Amino acid sequence: MYSILIIEDDKSIAELERDYLEINGFKCEIAQRGTTGLEKALANDYDLLIVDIMLPGMDGFEVITELRKKKQTPVIFLSAKNSDIDKIRGLGLGADDYMTKPFSPNELVARVKAHISRHEILTRGGGDIISVRSLIIDKDAHKVSVGGKEITMTAKEYDLLVFLAEHPNRTFSKDLLFDRIWGMDAVGDVSTVTVHIQRVRDKINLNGEKFIETVWGVGYRFA
């Protein structure tokens, strides 16, 4: 039975979440303070966390910041804060999903099931995964992680990394990469390839490892 920790200070909302999840076969616990929730999350092996942002003691952003230092448990933010800035911040800190209140309990259950399934594929193997040293690309979940830390990427950064990783030790020119990733009718020029390569490198070279090499005068290759 999968276990879920709900970190929510509104008792009625927390109980609603719990009831729907338990009907669908999940085991749930509730914490009404951010500090208490973090303690529980670090002390136990939950399969997923549902976290509000506005919490007493420690807000949801602080909870996930501390959690990600030690664990990669899937996290869904469920909050009344619905601005794009809050969503971007939450996802940037390592949340797997962001839902706003009021919410559909059935949709919440569906998302919980999806994220647990994706996390299992990533951690237990299977599915369409590229694994090179500390780098893992889960194509099914459209996620990238290095050393267990999930990396946030734009669509083009992701596409560029996947294309190179699927063709290891082959050198591709900037023109060819621009054609493959951006398309022949794209607006711009090949210099954008250089910019995106550097962005990808900055994001994945976290442990001193180098995944994308420059072949001077020719292009780039995934080593």
Give a verbal description of the structure.
The chain contains 8 helices and 11 strands. It has 223 residues and is α/β, with parallel strands linked by helices. It folds into 2 domains: 3-124, 3-Layer(aba) Sandwich (Rossmann fold), CATH 3.40.50; 152-222, Arc Repressor Mutant, subunit A, CATH 1.10.10. Strand 6 and strand 7 (135-138) form a beta hairpin. Helix 1 crosses helix 5 (105-124) and helix 6 packs across helix 8. The protein starts with a strand and ends with a strand. The model has no long low-confidence stretch (mean pLDDT 87).
Summarize the structure.
The protein is of the alpha/beta class.
* Helix-strand pattern: EHEHEHEHEHEEEEHHHEE
User: Which regions are unreliable across 5 or more consecutive residues at pLDDT < 50?
Assistant: none
CATH class of the largest domain: Alpha Beta
Percentage of residues in helical conformation: 40-55%
Global shape: elongated
Q: Please tell me the overall pLDDT.
A: 87
Rg over CA atoms, rounded to whole Å, is 20 Å
| Tally of distinct domains | 2
What is the CATH H-level superfamily of the largest domain? Response regulator
Reported for the largest beta sheet, the result is: 5 strands, parallel
Oligomer: single chain
**Class computed from helices, strands and strand pairing:** alpha/beta
Count of helical regions: 8
CATH fold name of the largest domain: Rossmann fold
Strand portion: 15-25%
- CA distance, first residue to last residue: 41 Å
Strand order of the largest sheet: 2-1-3-4-5
What is the CATH architecture descriptor of the largest domain? 3-Layer(aba) Sandwich
| E-strand count | 11
